[in-house]
Specification:
Blueprint (H helix, E strand, L loop, with lengths): L3 E4 L2 E4 L4 E7 L8 E7 L6 E6 L6 E3 L7 E6 L4 E6 L8 E8 L2 H5 L12 E6 L1
Length: 125
């Protein structure tokens, strides 16, 4: 059974940085695409970033492009989200997910079946 565990959330001032990690206990990590979503209070879960199985292709939401970087270390079964120049509007619970098809991650999140428990990021102004 695949289990995703996020870590690295916390409280940071605007302009600061955080790095989130998501460890995957599944056996297919190196062949799965991975992604990050976030959900702010009272809002729907939204796509943040995705990376293909090899790390050669990455995709970002317009709101984070140029500030966030997704990467992965297949030998450690871990995907990362480096978040720089954080803004108060980045405050949310961040979730990682996976799928065999990166198009599914970039599309409707209701089709994604595996999620971590989430890690809270709070950016103060």
């Amino acid at each position: 059974q695949v289990q995703l565990v996020e870590s690295g959330g916390g409280v940071v001032q605007a302009g600061g940085s955080l790095r989130l990690s998501c460890a995957d206990s599944g056996r297919t990590f190196s062949t799965d695409a991975m992604g990050w979503f976030r959900q702010a209070p009272g809002k729907e879960r939204e796509f943040v970033a995705a990376i293909n199985w090899s790390g050669s292709d990455t995709y970002y939401a317009d709101a984070v492009k140029g500030r966030f970087t997704i990467s992965r270390h297949n030998a450690k079964n871990t995907v990362y989200l480096q978040m720089n120049s954080l803004k108060p509007e980045d405050t949310a619970v961040y979730y990682c997910t996976l799928d065999a098809d990166i198009a599914t991650i970039r599309g409707n999140p209701t089709y994604l079946e595996v999620w971590g428990q989430g890690t809270l990021v709070t950016v103060s102004s």
